[in-house]
Structures are given as structure tokens and as C-alpha cells.
Fold this protein.
Amino acid sequence: MATTPSRRPGVRLVQRVSSTRGFAKVAPHVVPALDRAVHRLTRGKVLLSAQMLPGVILTARGARSGLPRRTPLACMPEGPTGKGAGGGEDSVGSWILIGSNFGRTDHPAWTANLLAHPDAEINWRGRDIPVTARLLAGAERDAVWRALLEFWPPYATYQARVEREIRLFRIVRR
């Protein structure tokens, strides 16, 4: 099972705020832009949103255009066996990407990109890593969803807000 994000002061407040409808309206326009800018300015060393929740920059080809699309995303790192976050950077065997779209109605565009072109790249803690994505379904998805809710409880609020099933992808190193 994945370990929960640090219980530093402020994490619970961020969880409460990130569950609000106001956050869902504003965050998609503000958080990715800030993440991209800080990531670029620090040459890939800092992802602003990752100060509370682990994150990657996903580079995937556009579903229709085929052009590279860079998207900052929260993720749940998994250990080498796929059974939860391990110790250091190299102990991460896979990552779970969550298509929550901040609890908005539609699937985020990056999920369609991965469905069309599963070979992608992530930037994880300043390192570019080639990966392959797989959409989770059935019992496997259910087990990951339970672990994800322990990892970051606001995802339950996002799912309750929408009729679609939030897409979960496991990405592994190529």
C-alpha cells in the first residue's frame, strides 16, 4: 500500500481546500501554469504542487495532433513490486496517474493522449524517464483506487462530484 503524503502542517488544510468546488474551478487554470513555470525555472528540480503531493511532468503525444504535450500531474509512486511507495528515487517501480481533472465533468485531455499513445515520458524529480501507460480496470483498478483514497482522500470528493469513472493509469519504465 502507498504511504500517505507527509503530515507536515498544512497538508490537511490543502486537502480540505482541494475538495471544494471553488478549487475545482480555479485550480485547472492556475496550478498547471505555476507548475510549468517553476519546473522550467528550476531546470526540472522543483515541481511546486509536489511540495504537498508527489508529482510528475508527463510528456505524451496528442491523441489527434501527435505533437508532444507536457502536463504537470499529481501521482502516487509505487515501489518496485507495485505495492506502494518505497524508499529512494530509484525504488519507484511505477506511478499511478489520476485523471480526476480536479473533479470536473470531463476526462482530462492527457488521458485521451495516453489511450491513443501509451508510450510517453515523465520527468520525476528532475530526471526524464521513458514510460508506458496502461489504463486500469476491474479488480486491479478497485484495489488501486482504495490505496489512492488512503494516499489522498480528496479524490473521493472528486469522484462523488462526477458521473464518469475517474481514469487511473499505471505507468512503468520502458
Observations:
- The two ends are 23 Å apart (CA to CA).
- Helices lie at 11-18, 21-41, 109-116, 138-151, 154-161.
- The longest helix spans residues 21-41.
- The first strand starts at residue 55 and ends at 61.
